[in-house]
Specification:
alpha+beta, Barwin-like endoglucanases, 6-stranded mixed beta barrel, 6-stranded mixed beta sheet, globular, disordered N terminus
Length: about 375
């Protein structure tokens, strides 16, 4: 396969078409990182930082390979977590804030919300619980291209084998059409296809089998097809006005239009497969650390090293009330693409879902990076 490296621009397009690979990411240098001061961060002096330190420390066991952040973690271990003044001094003396500017020159971008849903389910298929939560299929081939070709960093190849040929993996519609013939292991069964759809979008959740019996599932892999927004599809079809294209609005539409639901769901060909996670602590993000409600965010890892502190200045859902706090980049998402783009983790359950489903705000972001260390590059 050495010809891929030599004929990279031409062959890359073929790879994308043949095996459902994501397009090549723009270089990190396409964004700008402007060094600034804490005085320039809106609301910095009024922001409580103790929860931010706890969230940062939760990710430290996963940061040993990132020398700059590992050194900051070692210093953080000595900070009294209940001493706000000491915590503030730690962040101010250890990190430098950099305003993030996207490749188009804008310092403002989209901030959405996500949460951990809790679904009722069953370990066995029943008349009520008949929609499967799948684990990774045995025939899914997942290749990290960067392991062979560093110039393909950030790209994965997913597909399945037909004889000796690698072909695109099944789309959502094809997986659903297989029914009982689909060979992936079933982790659990749930009652509502829309709730299952949003479980895939959120990337993790809990499935409750009874009052004292539940499991947590998290993202394990994906079928290689691009994510397509159901809300945007319904708006484009005239089914929903833009202001109602929230999670709550989509669920209400689904209840009112059961005959059109399957076709609408199939507009998103992406399909997520899950794995069991520990039920203690919070759900696990892409960093491999438990997420902290309202102090963890999902980012585009092309622009933010996972585990790094990020100052976020936005507003609460459906309001102009400021949301200004220090959060930690601990997760990623298929729809989280861009230099000034964040998905704010609200926590678990229906109340968190209410905030997350309505959050579509504008915001600014500052990367906090250890003093004296060069900014990371891919």
């Amino acid at each position: 396969m050495n010809h891929i490296a030599r004929a990279f621009p031409i062959v890359l397009a073929a790879i994308v078409l043949v095996a459902g690979c994501a397009p090549l990411a723009p270089r990190l240098g396409a964004a700008r990182y402007e060094k600034t001061t804490y005085a320039e961060l809106p609301g910095w002096n009024a922001t409580a930082l103790e929860p931010s330190l706890r969230a940062f420390l939760a990710g430290c066991p996963r940061l040993q390979a990132v020398a700059a952040l590992a050194r900051a973690c070692a210093e953080a271990q000595a900070v009294p977590a209940d001493d706000e003044a000491a915590v503030r001094n730690f962040f101010v003396t250890t990190f430098v804030p950099y305003a993030v500017i996207d490749p188009e020159g804008s310092n403002t971008g989209l901030v959405t919300g996500y949460y951990e849903p809790v679904l009722d389910g069953s370990r066995e298929r029943t008349d009520r619980f008949r929609y499967p939560v799948y684990g990774i299929p045995d025939d899914l081939v997942d290749v990290d291209l960067a392991s062979l070709y560093p110039e393909l960093k950030g790209m994965r190849l997913r597909g399945r084998l037909e004889g000796r040929r690698l072909v695109p993996y099944y789309s959502r519609s094809e997986i659903d059409a297989h029914g009982d013939g689909f060979t992936a292991p079933v982790i659990a069964w749930v009652a509502d296809p829309v709730e299952l759809f949003f479980l895939q979008i959120q990337g993790s959740g809990q499935i409750r089998f009874g009052d004292d019996d539940r499991i947590r599932v998290g993202y394990a892999d994906q079928n290689g097809h691009p994510y397509r927004s159901l809300g945007r599809y319904l708006v484009a079809q005239g089914e929903l006005p833009l202001e109602q294209a929230s999670m709550q609005g989509i669920k209400a539409w689904a209840q009112a239009h059961p005959e059109s639901l399957q076709r609408a769901l199939e507009q998103n060909p992406s399909y997520v497969f899950f794995r069991d996670l520990p039920t203690s602590g919070g759900p696990t993000g892409a960093l491999g650390a438990p997420l902290s409600a309202t102090y963890s965010i999902a980012v585009d890892r092309r622009f933010y090293p996972l585990g790094a502190p990020v100052y976020l200045a936005s507003t609460l859902p459906l309001s102009n009330i400021p949301l200004q706090q220090l959060v930690i980049a601990q997760d990623t998402g298929g729809a989280i693409r861009g230099a000034v783009r964040a998905d704010f983790f609200w926590g678990s359950g229906d109340e968190a879902g209410g905030f997350a489903g309505r959050m579509r705000q504008q915001g600014r972001m500052w990367l906090l990076w250890p003093r004296g260390e060069p900014l990371p590059r891919p």
